TrEMBL record:
Keywords: Transferase. It comes from Solanum tuberosum. The keyword Transmembrane helix does not apply. This is Putative glycosyltransferase. Belongs to the UDP-glycosyltransferase family. GO terms for molecular function: transferase activity. Transmembrane segments: none annotated. The keyword Chaperone does not apply.
Amino acid sequence: PDCIFYDMYFPWTVDIADELHIPRILYNLSAYMCYSIMHNLKVYRPHKQPNLDESQSFVVPGLPDEIKFKLSQLTDDLRKPDDQKTVFDELLEQIGDSEERSYGIVHDTFYELEPAYVDYYQKLKKPKCWHFGPLSHFASKIRSKELIFEHNNNEIVIDWLNAQKPKSGLYVAF
């Protein structure tokens, strides 16, 4: 294969890509804003202030906009005490490690939707970042067969696949 295009929940593919000496590109379904918020929550930890009440709002620092949360709005993995490691924490560490070792990250969004967060996040990350989308909109139409029947895309896709060298692609899904 020439490249591995993977979802974040397959961090083990980084070792395969390294072994095969091919690039590995992460596909993120969420927007840059979401990943920027998560990054800054983990780095600045504003939710870990002493005596922070469940009903109090706090600002996530360093973002292009003022974003406020209450402790009650955060996921359990962010709210739990630091000394409580879970299997999910281990997976998140593997995901972070594999992301850093990837050639790049593709986000399912477009620049005009969130320009400040695209620029901000691209400065944060070591791997290259690209955006194209919204793919999820078209994926839902494909599942409902609207797009296939509207444009007869089956033939286009099959023609393209048939034009590729034999055994040059690999599709894996779980």
